[in-house]
Amino acid sequence: MITSTLELFVKKHNLFYVLTFSFLVIALPAWSQQRPNIIVFIADDAGWRDFGCYGNSAIKTPHIDQLAKQGTKFNQAFLTTPQCSPTRTSLLSGQFAHTIRTEDLHSPLEESVVIIPDQLKAAGYYTALLGKSHLGQEATNKFDAFFPGQGNPMPQDFAKVLSSSTESPFFAWYAFIDPHRDYQENTIADPHDPANVIVPPYLADTPDTRKDLAMYYDEIARMDRNIGEVLRMLKEEGKRNNTLIFFMSDNGKPFTRAKGTLYDEGIKTPFLAVWPGRIRPGSTKEALTSMIHLAPTILEAAGVEKGENMYGQSLLPLMFGQSVESDDFVFAERNWHDCDEHMRSVRSDSFKLIYNAYIEWPHGTAADLAGSLAHQSLLALKKEGKLSAEQSLIFQSPRPVIEFYNVKEDPWEFNNLAYDAQYRPLIQKHMKALMGWMETTDDFDPHFRRRYDNTDRVTGTIFMMGRPGVYNELKKEEESYLKRKLESTF
Taking the mean position of all CA atoms in its chain, how far away is CA 260? Predict the structure, then answer.
């Protein structure tokens, strides 16, 4: 991937490239005199709707809500995948998962891929990964320290980060396992009441589903309290005012038709940014924003140039209230996650197009969702023929090749407009953008590589342990030849 190609892609899609020389000259000294500490709090499977600051009044997230009041809240932030390890490798590298060959779940980053800690360490930062890695050993080793905690990061380990960075700024990737499944009752002392949870329309409103959601809420509340403890420690150490804090999730909630899907429920993320004296408290951003921009944002805040292979641009001008151009489109992908998929999506401010390659099979159900009370409730209603039209969509087979939604009027993405002739110009516009992105980012054709499923697509039952092998894989030169043959046909 060459720099000039990346620049063409960035300019073509208006990815926050409007950074003027005068801004750089004026703004850089403001933080280069004392480089900030940087913390990224990243949840594991937390849906964007499930925080008080994003409108869920039933959930207990006082510390995260306070961060929203102290900084800026993005209302249209989107991940590049709806899966754990592909998202994390994309975030830290500033590249798309298929570009760096980490598109399938559990695919480790190769040592040669440059990620944020590589560049921050070279610039004098102390770097630490706390909690969940899921990046592969080579990438984990790039941090100065790795504190696995007990699945979740431990505040006492964060104290070690503070004591190890007295002479230098620090970068902490604070990665929770909450609210990933499995769930237990009484995770917190004051658990949520199932009667008060908000049941989305794609789930069955049953006592079991409500119990499941309440336990999910409890894990988010436990994460919130952990964040509160870290914020307290920062304040006591006198480092709160010079610390840039981000909060986000790696994908949607771990429920059917959310995690693992390219609907907004799977790829939209809460995204908060707090930097005292730099980012205006209580502000909100409505601009369409891809999280491919996170890595360049962190690097610019540290006074470091972005990596030459990074696709995004710094969001700092937007966070600082500058007038900048937002993303015209955001792109995402879903690949192997217990079941193989080759799904791609492009979203504009008002519309979403999803391209499904493997239409002969129903949407793959991740194994961790299979035994959940909520999924079992759906399967019970399915067996009885009592699913609503909305609840039955996830089990549809064959699937449409193209799904097209008006996300303004249909935020749950239930009404596929791909069959409506009046939307053909818009569908073609979005498809052209999607195909351009796939070509520019070195995506692979769905017919050139498949991986075996290891779970049943409907029930989620595991029938093969471990990640299965790849079949139908062609050599690169064969793939290129067939691509040229296909292109010459049209």
Answer: 11
Q: Cα separation of 401 and 13, whole Å? A: 25
What's the CA gap between 274 and 140, in Å, rounded?
A: 26
Question: Where does 170-314 have alpha helices with state H?
Answer: 207-236, 264-267, 294-301
State how far the Cα of 70 lies from the Cα of 140, in Å rounded to an integer: 31
Sign of CA dihedral 294, 299, 302, 305: negative
Q: Which of 61, 416, 44, 394 is nearest to 200 (CA)?
A: 394
Pairing of strands 450-451, 470-471: antiparallel
Task: Give the torsion through C-alpha atoms of 473, 476, 478, 482, to 10 deg.
Answer: 90
CA–CA dist 265, 96 (Å, integer): 20
User: Which H/E stretch holds residue 285?
Assistant: strand 283-285
Q: Mean pLDDT over residues 414-435, rounded? A: 97
Reported as a single tens digit per residue, the pLDDT across 172-195 is 999 999 999 999 999 999 999 999
* Strand-pair partners of 146: 129
- pTM more than 0.85: yes
Q: Which two tokens stand for residue 261?
A: 């899907």
Question: Do 37 and 166 contact (CB within 8 A), yes or no?
Answer: no
- How far apart CA 449 and CA 472 sit, in angstroms, is 5
